[in-house]
Amino acid sequence: MKTEKSHKLFERAKNVIPGGVNSPVRAFRAVGGNPLFIKRAEGAYLIDEDDNKYIELINSWGPMILGHANTDIENAVCEAVKDSLSFGAPGEREVFMAELITTMIPSIEKVRMVSSGTEATMAAVRLARGYTNRAKIIKFEGCYHGHGDSFLIAAGSGAITLGVPDSPGVTQGVANDTLTAPFNNLKAVQDLAAANKGQIAAIIIEPVAGNMGLVVPETGFLQGLRTLCDNEGIVLIFDEVMTGFRLSKGGAQQILNVKPDITTLGKIIGGGMPVGAYGGKKEIMDFVSPAGPVYQAGTLSGNPVAMAAGLAMLNYLNTHPEVYTHLENITARICEGFEKNLKELGIKGTVNKIGSMFTLFFTDQKVKDFETAKTSDTALFGRYFRAMLEEGVYLAPSQYESLFISTAITEELAEKIVNANYKALKAVLQNA
Ligand SMILES: Cc1ncc(COP(=O)(O)O)c(C=O)c1O
Ligand SMILES: N[C@H](C=O)CCC(=O)O
Q1: I need a labelling partner for 414 at 20 to 30 A (CA). Which of 188, 201, 209, 393 fits?
Q2: Which cofactor does this sequence's record say it needs (predicted)?
Q3: Is any atom of ligand 2 closer than 6 Å to the C-beta of 158?
Q4: Residue 228 burial (CB < 10 Å; 0-12/13-18/19+)?
Q5: Could you tell me the fold of the domain covering 71-319?
């Protein structure tokens, strides 16, 4: 595989961008080798600067659920651009967007648009603190909620990959207010709440965790958190930046049948543009400025072009429920193929999946939390990642990420992915 142009760009980038990338996990540090610079993407494919073409399973870390260069979304953006790129004043698309979100996710009665998932989670926690007049929050080991200071404690995603789950730069004062518990361990959360009675403002959780690899909640876990929050006056925040509009049109909360007080959103909601949102019960959302005292603002919040992209995306998903069945069937097919390959080649692996999200962990343990996720052989993952690239399939460059399927993955492509997986696993065995 020729990667000269990517390599040259990376060398130039390292001189002027920290680590040569604008988000750490893109640097390929966990898997070895240099990042590929992408010049174009279309449907299910990424095309790099050296004209290599890959079937891709990241989809910009989730947003591109309809594949790249979707005509509906691109047309909506082109139309919106004609009216100016930004107003800094309210526009009708923001109203349409809020109406659509509150229809699709009924636990959201009012919603505020922001420009990233990080902004959404930071604002949601500030709101919960302002509403309850309490300081502490509980988060889960291996969950990632963006790079807000309060969340960089036992954090997932690139923070695990690069060995900074507790980042320098976060003050001890902030860290003291973030308590952590293992995912899927209700007793640990109940104990924390009892030991800090009357002090916990919020429990924030990815209802389906995607940032320590994919980990699904066990039966009763989320419902147990709901009951605990109701009993203790704690605000339950579901961070659905990844799962919102992906696992169903009503997000993870719809399929798992548990309603949070606040939901944070991002990724798909922007159709590929930088958008986030947080919303929930009216009573809580009316604490947000200017309705209430909790301050939060944004120069580009509700940006008309971003709203146009997001509206086109959400309108499509809202009116095409068959999308989710298709995505689930394709994902099941790929995961079954991977499991068969692992068995045939005698490689230890566990495939976690839900809807159109999945992770192949190189461990024979059941992966139900961060501790079990960490039993994966990450060196083996690195070799597998590179072998898959050679086979023309682009994966997330870390064991601790979920993969995402888009509607552009046809049954034929699913077959190709399974075959590539077999060849890559075999190559990894031969070179062990
Ligand atoms: C669950 C979750 N929350 C929050 C974020 C932060 O979103 P963003 O990267 O848009 O700031 C991410 C992804 O990065 C995420 O996966
Ligand atoms: N896991 C992260 C978000 O979902 C990966 C994206 C990033 O940090 O660049």
Answers
A1: 209
A2: pyridoxal 5'-phosphate
A3: yes
A4: buried
A5: Aspartate Aminotransferase; domain 2 (3.40.640)
